[in-house]
């Protein structure tokens, strides 16, 4: 009994000390942090205003395993949003872009779990030639009396997260710059020939209305669905899977309904628990291919050129492959590599 009284007295003393200490801790906290990325501001800002890109390198998300994501239109800039959650719904929340001024400033609101009070995160972009200086201003949510101790470590945690994120971003931009240089050297609208290696795709089978307003929106939806699954559910980094590809029968491009497969190349089969996703092997083949840039619906003219060339050379063709060389978005032109397997 004495021990019980002793434990109670100790607990009350510790709680009293904690209560007194918390009187000197603000219910919310604001702090700033400065960082720098060795790339121009136009390339850096793109990674911040597109939440699909942002969640792939920001350590707050990429440093956690098992998170899945849902993104909402307009997908980038002011008004875009995303939800994130682990499988057991023990860690979840929402991220919003409330304000975006191109290459200058961006404001996020981050809600954790069911908390109605968000983190406010303002980032200012300062161009410095081929480098970009970032000024982070972070305001933590108001916390209850018993939770205020979290404010004592909030700044250290955020600074650590930002520093790790900047390293991830630098690596991603390095890969992106190499890719941009290759894209810049592409010759469009000319039919070429190559031997295409075989590969293994993981993706979804889709059937949708084949109209200008519906088709591309459906492609964007399934693009997000496949990449979210590969990144979040399978835990794959961007360098662990290949360029997204859409496979369809070119003979059906004028039908009212269009069926296609949308997937990304993986190096080997992995266990997949979601029945909506399946593997599709693509055999090695000789292909006619052409690069296209413009509105997605305008690609049909180039596809017809491939079919005409095949017919002229008295060859048969396989299924059409459309590779998205850049991330497709609703308000941007697409860059595609259109490939048509040919054989006698």
UniProtKB/TrEMBL annotation:
InterPro entries: Reg_factor_effector_dom_sf (IPR011256). This is Polyketide cyclase. The lineage of its organism: Bacteria, Pseudomonadati, Bacteroidota, Flavobacteriia, Flavobacteriales.
């Amino acid at each position: 009994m004495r021990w019980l009284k002793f434990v109670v007295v100790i607990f009350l003393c510790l709680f009293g000390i904690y209560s007194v200490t918390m009187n000197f801790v603000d219910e919310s906290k604001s702090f700033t942090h400065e960082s720098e990325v060795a790339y121009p501001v136009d390339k850096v800002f793109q990674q911040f205003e597109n939440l699909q890109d942002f969640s792939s390198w920001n350590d707050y998300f990429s440093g956690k395993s098992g998170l899945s994501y849902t993104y909402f239109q307009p997908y980038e800039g002011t008004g875009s949003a995303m939800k994130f959650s682990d499988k057991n719904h023990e860690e979840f929340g929402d991220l919003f872009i409330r304000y975006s001024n191109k290459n200058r400033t961006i404001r996020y609101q981050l809600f954790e779990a069911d908390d109605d009070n968000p983190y406010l995160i303002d980032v200012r972009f300062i161009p410095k030639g081929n480098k970009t200086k970032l000024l982070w201003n972070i305001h933590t949510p108001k916390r209850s009396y018993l939770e205020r101790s979290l404010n004592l470590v909030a700044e250290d945690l955020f600074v650590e997260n930002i520093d790790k994120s900047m390293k991830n971003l630098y690596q991603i931009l390095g890969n992106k710059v190499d890719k941009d240089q290759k894209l810049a050297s592409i010759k469009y609208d000319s039919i070429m020939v190559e031997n295409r290696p075989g590969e293994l795709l993981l993706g979804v089978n889709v059937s949708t209305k084949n109209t200008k307003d519906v088709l591309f929106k459906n492609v964007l939806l399934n693009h997000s669905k496949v990449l979210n699954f590969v990144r979040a559910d399978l835990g794959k980094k961007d360098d662990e899977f290949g360029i997204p590809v859409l496979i369809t029968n070119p003979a059906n491009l004028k039908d009212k309904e269009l069926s296609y497969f949308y997937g990304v190349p993986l190096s080997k089969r992995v266990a997949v628990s979601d029945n909506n996703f399946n593997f599709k092997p693509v055999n090695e083949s000789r292909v006619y291919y052409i690069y296209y840039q413009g509105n997605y619906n305008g690609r049909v003219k180039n596809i017809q050129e491939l079919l005409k060339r095949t017919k002229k050379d008295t060859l048969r063709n396989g299924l059409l492959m459309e590779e998205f060389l850049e991330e497709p978005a609703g308000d941007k032109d697409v860059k595609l590599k259109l490939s048509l397997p040919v054989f006698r």
